[in-house]
Amino acid sequence: MTGANRRRFGSTARTRSLVLLPVARRGTLPAAGLTKPLPPRPPGLGTLHGWHTEVALPVTGTFTTPGKGSLRADAVVTAPEAGLPVLFVEVDNGTEPPAKVADKIVRYRRFFQRTVKDLSGQQVPLWSTIWQASGRGGFPPVAFVFTKQVGPKALQARIQEVARLSREHWQSMWCHGRHIEDTGESDGYWDYEGAVPVLATTLDRLRQHGPCGAIWWRFGHGSAQGLTDALDNPDDRCAFDRREEQRRAAQRAAWEEDERREQDEYRRWQASLWPCPTCGDDVDPDDAPGLARGDECPSCGTQRERSEAERVEAEAEWERERRGNGLFGWLRG
User: Fold this and answer.
1) Centroid of chain to Cα 160
2) Which of 82, 141, 181, 320 lies 20 to 30 angstroms, CA to CA, from 104?
3) Residues 103, 104, 107, CA angle at the centre, nearest 5°?
């Protein structure tokens, strides 16, 4: 090794040794116990593998080449472990007018209404070939997260305007079920089969309470709810069928009670009978309230009284004839 090389190698070795030396920290570390704890994070929804962004939803065309009028969901969540097979998520930053946001719900409904033939040749919804149904009826839910930092009144007004403009696409249809004769009232249910369940919340509420908190306003519901309650349809056909079953059960119970009461009345009536000592037929005290137990039946009593009356009448007639024959009649007597 030449002198120049040795000098360069020594310089490199010294540089490496300086790099490996510990660097002195500037400032001082905070004392133990003085760090501010982070606030607890609310529970999330699903797993990382259950989230997909910018998912094409073809109104026409295919998933890989969607046609005109199709849309892209900002996110699609699949969390079957949380009772949520699929949830389509839209993030609204306030840059579009409410009418354009409402138009997304229109296009979601068109996508949900699109059908294709399955392997057996049956028409099935296109979305059901990718995602599972929730079992609640109707189309999959769509959740809007409003992120614009405006006053609560302005934000609520925007949400209500979007709901008003898209009402025909998320509102269910009332179906009359039956007329209840006992109360004079009618009962029915809301049909959600052709409706898109639309949920709305704000980014601040989502950060504070998490997706499982009572932060969701379901279009058509009265107040903020948790995710499960917001997705539920408590007044649908299933609820009506449960009420119908309860009414049928109550009617069956009433019929059984009437039958039991009639059977008790029949047993009490049978126990009140006694056999007529003359003819042996059962004597019903209800037919002759004045009879005592063990007396003859009214028919036998009437026949006995008639026979006795006939006997008395015959004796009286005989007595009159004998008296009419004078002395010789008395002597013959």
Assistant:
1) 26
2) 82
3) 90
Residue with tokens 């360069």: 8
Q: How many residues does the chain have?
A: 333
**Tens-digit pLDDT profile for the chain (333 aa)?**
444 444 443 444 444 444 444 445 555 555 555 567 767 788 888 888 999 999 999 999 999 999 998 999 999 999 998 889 999 999 999 999 999 999 999 999 999 999 999 888 899 999 999 999 888 878 999 999 999 888 889 999 999 999 999 999 999 888 887 766 666 678 888 788 889 999 999 999 999 999 999 999 999 988 899 999 999 888 877 778 888 888 888 889 989 999 999 999 999 888 888 898 888 888 888 877 778 888 888 888 888 888 888 888 888 878 777 777 665 555 555
- Spell out the SS3 assignment of 67-112: CCCCEEEEEEEEEHHHCEEEEEEEEECCCCCHHHHHHHHHHHHHHH
Structure tokens at 177: 């079920």
Tokens linked to 310: 């006939």
Residues 68, 82: Cα–Cα separation, whole Å: 34
User: Token pair for residue 200?
Assistant: 């709305």
Q: Is the pTM of this model over 0.70?
A: no
- Give CA–CA dist 69/253, Å, rounded: 57
CB 93 within 8 A of CB 64: no
In the sheet with 198-202, reading across from the earlier edge strand, the strands are: 51-57, 71-79, 84-92, 142-146, 198-202, 217-218
